[in-house]
Design goal:
Layout: H1 2-103
């Protein structure tokens, strides 16, 4: 009976040792996972800051694009007006030249 109890005690000790070893491995794995999570959190923070910076840059470029479009439209209108005026002047001059020729 005592021998059986000793065998059981030895078996329990071995089992406890295995459990402690497993527990140590799990603790080490948990620490490793915490470090990985911390690193990823840092990376996520960097990416979020970069995204924010990119969004600001896009907004800035959108504004510049809008200004360029407005300036282009104004320039195009001005050019069209100038061409129209020059055409009108040319027509008036042609008419004046023809009138002068008929008068001569």
């Amino acid at each position: 009976n005592v021998t059986e109890l000793k065998k059981e005690a030895d078996s329990d000790k071995k089992h406890i040792a295995r459990l402690e070893k497993d527990q140590t491995k799990l603790k080490e794995e948990a620490e490793s996972n915490k470090k990985i999570i911390s690193t990823r959190d840092t990376d996520i923070g960097k990416l979020e800051r970069q995204m924010s910076s990119d969004r600001n840059r896009i907004a800035e470029l959108d504004t510049k694009y809008d200004v360029l479009c407005k300036n282009y439209t104004e320039c195009t209108c001005r050019t069209w007006n100038q061409e129209h005026i020059m055409q009108s002047i040319s027509e008036v001059l042609d008419s004046a030249i023809l009138t002068a020729l008929f008068l001569v």
